[in-house]
Design brief:
- Helix 7 crosses helix 8, helix 12 packs across helix 14 and helix 19 crosses helix 20.
- Helix 15 links the parallel strand 11 and strand 12.
- The chain folds into 4 domains: about 140 residues, no CATH class; about 90 residues, Beta Polymerase, domain 2; about 55 residues, Beta Polymerase, domain 3; about 240 residues, Metal-dependent hydrolases (TIM Barrel).
- The strands form 4 sheets. A 7-stranded parallel β-sheet has the order 11-12-13-14-15-16-17, with helices on one face. A 5-stranded mixed β-sheet has the order 2-4-7-6-5, sandwiched between helices. It has a 3-stranded antiparallel β-sheet with strand order 8-9-10.
- The longest helix has 20 residues.
- By secondary structure, it is of the alpha/beta class.
- It starts with a helix and ends with a helix.
- The site of one calcium ion (CA) has 4 residues, from strand 4.
- The site of one calcium ion has 5 residues, from helix 10 and strand 4.
């Protein structure tokens, strides 16, 4: 708040906040435990109420408001070494620099060095500061780091010294990107486990090597924290270190309401520990049912915890690419793998003609592909296998909202996915209208990766999701949750919105080779993070019901 107020030239108020911030940072006592906040040096009624609001809700409304009203991304800019609020303000006034990207661009074009009070050295420092930030503040795609994390978990759990083990933090909550990986263990011989951990072959740097906590960086660039906790506190430690921070604030508040104390060591009534060994017992002790980690992101009605979808509910995958459009595997091979996964059906949805770089199929090829699928299905029938290959496609929604395959062909297919793959930068109104028009085509059943985002690469395109939902509901169009680790599109908040609106969804992997059919778990996690239940997701349904949703 001090920074934003300084930006607004409220220097008196800014100084007041800055002073309190400094005091709070060095306070020895925990703020949560303090009876009278106004005893803290510099804290008056006004700031005390802000601290209270934060402890209670995890937010300060005035702060959120300041952030919103300030035209520049102040936090982003002053994170750069050597940049302060005053400089940020000058750069905005003189060069309209609003965010880190602008700053980098301007520095690279030598625009900053020319400003009074900046100079070439400052400019060089800015670029170095940005490069550093990029190196150190990286987040990692969950899907990208999962294999190596699982490998580490395997190795640790194979040690006889390790009694219990679990991931925690954002990794356990299955967030799409992870800052660092947190692992908890119970062990009677922590020294040996820690030595083993810091000597793992994947470790490239050891940040810390202690008996209760060690931190390392592994080859992929991500940091891993390993903590040893006492067996009797395993549940409460897991609860605490799984987070999110917001969830922890809420659960702690609930505990306080019941005159209990909840921390990473246990649940306490006065000095007496009443729970801590398992997470279930910790939640129980504060009057709650166990909450799946994916739901521990924000506010939640604890009386109505949704029974969210599970991987085992999935009966098939409808977003798969075959050799026909340059994928790795033949339809027969894909079907075999899907059967092995316990699926009842697999949908082949190759790209269509507009998408040249993906070897999109023209209408003739699509019709030829149907013959191959029919043949495979006939064979299954003869062999008495209850499995079906569905004939679909991933067609393109062209800029004017039309589909690049004629209705004459589309209407023969088992189902049709349509997606935006070109002209992503058109304005909001046009993009919304474009997708609405596609949904209004009675042959279009599913909209693929509806927002177009690629994590760490590009934002969603501009579109009005509420309007999309309205039309999806009206036309009974299904929205995809794409499982590809860099997409995970829909995002969690939009899944919740879709569910609320009564719009059905489908989880698809977008596999281009059979190993990618295993990405389904990431889409399911994303669905869980959006509170989706089995009934919200059509590929949890048996074939007969599934086919009805494509009518
Ligand atoms: P990340 O690593 O940025 O993806 O996110 P997390 O959620 O894994 O955060 P991390 O690694 O800093 O901490 C792990 C968990 O520990 C976090 O989710 C909640 C808990 N925790 C850490 N620091 C605090 C804190 O200052 N207050 C509270 N209430 N909980 C904390
Ligand atoms: Ca973490
Ligand atoms: Ca951590």
């Amino acid at each position: 708040m001090a920074n934003y107020l300084e930006m607004e030239d409220s220097s008196f108020r800014s100084k007041a906040y800055r002073k309190v911030a400094e005091v709070l940072e060095t306070l020895q006592e925990s703020v949560e435990d303090m009876k009278d906040l106004e005893k803290i040096p510099g804290v008056g009624k006004h700031i005390a109420s802000k601290i209270e609001e934060y402890l209670k809700t995890g937010f300060i409304r005035d702060y959120e408001k300041l952030k919103k009203e300030t035209p520049i991304k102040l936090e982003e800019i002053i994170a750069v070494e050597g940049m302060g609020v005053k400089k940020a303000k000058v750069l905005y006034d003189k060069l309209k620099i609003k965010n880190l990207k602008d700053l980098e661009k301007a520095a690279k074009k030598n625009k900053i060095a020319k400003l009074e009070g900046f100079g070439e050295k400052t400019e060089k420092n800015i670029l170095e500061g940005i490069a550093f930030l990029e190196r150190s503040s990286g987040r990692f795609l969950l899907g990208k780091i999962t294999p190596v994390v699982e490998d580490i978990l395997d190795k640790l759990s194979n040690l006889k010294e390790v009694e219990k083990i679990s991931t925690a933090g954002s990794f356990r909550r299955r967030k799409e990107t992870v800052g660092d990986v947190d692992i908890l263990i119970v062990s009677k011989k922590p020294e040996e486990v820690m030595t083993f951990f810091v000597s793992l072959p994947d470790v490239v740097k050891v940040w810390g090597h202690g008996t209760t906590k060690s931190s390392v960086r592994i080859k992929e660039g991500v940091d891993v924290d390993l903590r040893v906790v006492p067996a009797k506190s395993y549940g409460s430690a897991l609860q605490y270190f799984t987070g999110s921070k917001e969830h922890n604030i809420i659960t702690r508040r609930i505990a306080i309401g019941k005159e209990l104390k909840l921390n990473e060591y246990g649940v306490f009534r006065g000095a007496k520990m009443i729970a801590g060994k398992t997470e279930k017992e910790v939640y129980r002790a504060i009057g709650l049912d166990w909450i799946p980690p994916e739901l521990r992101e924000s506010e939640l009605d604890f009386k109505k915890i949704p029974k969210i979808i599970e991987l085992k509910d999935i009966k098939g995958d409808l977003h798969c690419h075959s050799k026909w459009n340059g994928g790795n595997d033949s339809i027969a091979v894909i079907a075999k793998k899907a059967m092995k996964m316990g699926y009842e059906y697999i949908g082949i949805s190759d790209h269509t003609q507009f998408l040249k770089i993906e070897h999109g199929l023209n209408e003739k090829q699509l019709l030829k592909q149907k013959k191959e699928i029919d043949k495979i299905n006939l064979k299954f029938k003869i062999e008495n296998l209850k499995f079906r290959v569905l004939w679909g496609c991933e067609a393109n929604i062209l800029t004017d909202g039309s589909i690049d395959v004629s209705d004459k062909v589309l209407e023969q297919m088992d189902y049709v996915i349509a997606g935006v793959h070109s002209a992503l930068k058109i304005d909001k109104e046009k993009m919304t209208q474009r997708i609405i028009m596609a949904m209004e085509n009675p042959n279009v059943d599913i909209i693929a990766h509806p927002s177009g985002r690629i994590l760490q690469q590009r934002d969603e395109y501009q579109f009005d999701f509420d309007k999309i939902l309205e039309t999806a509901k009206k036309t009974e169009t299904i929205l995809e949750i794409n499982s590809s680790p860099a997409r995970l599109d829909l995002k969690d908040s939009n899944i919740r919105k879709a569910k609320k609106a009564g719009v059905k969804m489908v989880i698809g992997t977008d596999a281009h080779q059979i190993s990618q059919l295993d990405l389904m778990n990431f889409g399911v996690s994303q669905a869980r993070r959006g509170w989706a239940e089995k009934e919200d997701i059509i590929n949890t349904q048996p074939l007969s019901i599934l086919l009805q949703s494509f009518k």
